[in-house]
Specification:
With about 350 residues, this protein is an alpha/beta fold. It has twelve helices and 14 strands. It binds 3-isopropylmalic acid and magnesium ion (MG). Magnesium ion binds next to helix 9.
């Protein structure tokens, strides 16, 4: 890596540009404060890319991300592009990005800030102290399995199909990441599958159990996904690290986000490939786009994860986390986490408040 740290910025659609603008300002400030040279290059992805080029993940963006040290992404998708063929939908751009970079390990931390325990729809005693890391497999499973498609049958009716597929090496590598992450935390891994019904996830369970032989200092448990969904709401504090398939991870991380007050709070880092991708777990929220209602914290914390994981700037991560805590502590809230007695602020105001704390 040269002295200049090259960051590809892909705002995408909906609220993407608004939240990315705030995260970028935070990175610029960190760059100034620490004397780190960040070079930002914007690229097109998702619906914005479709509108400009007809392709949700254009060649130019592919070259850009491959030549970068880290990728910061907003969100993709929206009703405008929903009628398009699957192969050229905005979501394909995001999946293409993940696959191209080989970012197979998606870390989604769901940690509740004390300041927000009353903002959740769940009871305080259930969520206080929640600190879960969802390790979602990101480049395999039913999202990518072949064959897939929709066929017209002889009688004119249709058949739609996707394939859930995992190989031993794919499961081994994500399991290792989960155990390694657990060693830095509470040393507990819960592997989530549907091994009672799906053969593919029975293999998942067997391989995770095998990999665990090298991690005897970490406690391993297995849970069926339906039960895991229930346990996340019933007693989330039982979880430390959850490792699971691409689709189960997609669903469970949205559920886990509500433990923290709002899906607008959850950042993520996708690693294991040639370049890491840092993005909030939420979508493009077209219903509130352009109205200043979005919560930039998930994206700002994704930028913080970038500093920590891509550039080993752990102090900068802590500074940003503390700035967020300070702003929440003063009662400032975007609409998604608004509480009685709080001061409602816009997306850009929230970004500015966090910047002020950092300065
Ligand atoms: C996520 C999103 C994406 C996914 C969509 C936008 C393709 O829901 O990152 O969780 O399903 O992975
Ligand atoms: Mg999702």
């Amino acid at each position: 890596m040269s002295d200049v740290k090259k960051i590809a910025v892909l705002p995408g659609d909906g609220i993407g540009p608004e939240i990315i603008a705030e995260a970028r300002k935070v990175l610029e400030l960190v760059g100034e404060k620490t004397g780190t040279a960040f070079e930002f290059t914007e690229g097109l992805i998702g619906g914005a890319a479709i509108d400009a080029t007809g392709n949700p993940f254009p060649e130019e963006t592919q070259e850009l991300v491959k030549a970068s040290d880290a990728v910061m992404l907003g969100a993709v998708g929206g009703p405008k592009w929903e009628g398009l063929d699957y192969a050229i939908r905005p979501e394909r751009g995001l999946l293409g990005l993940r696959a191209t970079l080989g970012a197979f390990a998606n870390l989604r931390p769901a940690k509740i800030y004390d300041e927000l325990v009353d903002a959740s729809t769940l009871k305080k005693e259930v969520i206080e102290g929640v600190d879960i890391m969802v390790v979602r497999e990101l480049t395999g499973g039913i999202y990518f399995g072949e064959p897939k498609g929709v066929e017209v049958l002889a009688d004119g009716s249709k058949k739609g199909f996707n394939t859930l597929v995992y190989t031993t090496p794919e499961i081994e590598r994500i399991a290792k990441i989960a155990f390694d992450v657990a060693r830095q935390r509470g040393r507990k891994v819960c592997s989530v599958d549907k091994a009672n019904v799906l053969e593919c996830t029975e293999l998942w369970r067997d391989v995770v159990t095998d990999v665990h032989k090298d991690y005897k200092d970490v406690e391993l448990s297995h849970m069926y996904v339906d039960n895991a969904a229930m346990q996340l709401i019933r007693n989330p504090k039982q979880f430390d690290v959850i490792v699971t398939t691409n689709m189960f991870g997609d669903i469970l991380s949205d559920a886990a986000s509500m433990l923290t007050g709002s899906i607008g709070m959850l950042p993520s880092a996708s690693m294991g490939g040639m370049v890491g991708i840092y993005e909030p777990i939420h979508g493009s929220a077209p219903d509130i786009a352009g109205q200043g209602k979005a919560n930039p914290i998930a994206t700002i914390m994704s930028a913080a994860m970038m500093l920590k994981y891509a550039f080993a700037m752990d102090d900068a991560y802590d500074d940003i986390d503390n700035a967020v805590i300070a702003v929440l502590g003063k009662g400032f809230r975007t609409p998604d986490i608004m509480q009685e007695g709080g001061t409602e602020v816009t997306c850009s105001k929230m970004g500015e408040l966090i910047l002020n704390e950092l300065t």
